[in-house]
Amino acid sequence: MSATTPWxxxxxxxxxxxxxxxxxxxxxxxxxxxxxxEVCFNTALTGYQEILTDPSYLGQIVTFxxxxxxxIGANGEDIEDLTPAARRGAVGVIFxxxxxxxxxxxxxxxxxxxxxxxxxxxxxxxxxxxxxxxxRENGAPNAVIAHDPNGQFDIEALKARAKAWSGLEGLDLAxxxxxxxxxxxxxxPWVWNEGYDEAKPEEAAYHVVCLDYGVKRNxxxxxxxxxxxxxxxxxxxxxxxxxxxxxDGVFLSNGPGDPAATGEYAVPVIQELIKTDLxxxxxxxxxxxxxxxxxxxxEKMHQGHHGANHPVKDHTTGKVEIVSMNHxxxxxxxxxxxxxxxxxxxxxxxxxxGLKITGKPVFSVQHHPEASPGPQDSHYLFRRxxxxxxxxxxxxxLAERA
Length: 402
Ligand SMILES: NC(=O)CC[C@H](N)C(=O)O
Prior knowledge:
Pathway: Amino-acid biosynthesis; L-arginine biosynthesis; carbamoyl phosphate from bicarbonate: step 1/1; Pyrimidine metabolism; UMP biosynthesis via de novo pathway; (S)-dihydroorotate from bicarbonate: step 1/3. The protein is an alpha/beta fold. It has two domains: 14-164, 3-Layer(bba) Sandwich (Glucose Oxidase, domain 1); 174-392, Rossmann fold, CATH 3.40.50. It has helices at residues 48-52, 111-118, 128-138, 155-164, 174-177, 217-225, 239-244, 259-274, 285-293, 380-392; strands spanning 14-18, 23-30, 33-42, 60-64, 92-94, 121-124, 142-147, 183-185, 187-191, 195-198, 206-212, 228-234, 249-252, 280-283, 298-314, 319-331, 340-346, 352-357, 362-365. The strands form three sheets. Strands 8-12-11-13-14-19-18-17-15-16 form a ten-stranded mixed sheet, with helices on both faces. A seven-stranded mixed β-barrel has the order 1-2-6-5-4-3-7. Strands 9-10 form a two-stranded antiparallel sheet. Helix 8 (259-274) packs across helix 9. The longest helix is centred in the middle third of the chain and has 16 residues, at 259-274. Bound molecules: glutamine. Residues 56, 254-257, 259, 284-285, 326-329 line the site of glutamine (GLN).
């Protein structure tokens, strides 16, 4: 790909330097500085704040294929990481157009200012279509993103840094994304014109313990919205820590990095938990680590899946759901051992999107049923989990689709 500067003839104030030496010039937005990361593209049309604060994006630079970003500004509500004070989400961002001025009743800040505050380095004014096509052909590249308002770059040093970065494979980032302490989650789902309601954990019907590898808030909100008290434990928690809380069910969260690297400490814990009769539900990284715990293999994908418009088929019902996705690794379907069923597949490439243990209340999905952002087709999976908790208590099942 050749370097392009379609936005202006001015001196570039930001660069994207790929590990193969390609240099793409643009205009700097957000924070200044230099950072190495993997570049992916996200095809969602809405929800840029939720995307950029999703802890699973740690170690990545998100290229938005939607060209105009910023028109709803930034607010303090559309946040997905548990501890936004320390940046736990995308480290860089790439836009086609200049950031649009905010025009929305919820906007509290210009997106540019919000990116600066969060420490997210941005590059705008580049041909994101060409970059996306390049990623599709060549796979998600390692790169360095650099922003300097004076346009002072040591290009050879940036090329060397991009080339030297070892990439996401083998990288455990959950230890950085986890909130690191145990806490209780008390916020319910967002309601139009009302915002978030507070949960009353003392009155909740079920207790779910979440192992936090970089959990998204909306997952926790959907649990409280379904009458659950939610206790969040750090990624380092042991099976005894989970069982000591006497939960009705366990949730394995999403998170950044390579599941195989994270699995070194998390998989033995999951293996212990599977031996009990507790219902277990996993999403994304949690799904991949459940797969590893069962003896399956995970693999790095060519370009990954990042968007809010991916078709997935649920073999249990035969229905197709349009889902939110954010993953660069996948469970290799062929490696699923006997006694483990493939429940969901991607209709884009046939890759594995779900599994369950035959005869046990344990299942997980690769996609993001909590959406945030994205369609809510897959919310039923939370009700599927609640039904496992109900079954254990001898309560009748809820309809899966409300
Ligand atoms: N959203 C997630 O949990 C992502 C899982 C894992 N880090 C991947 O990229 O595949």
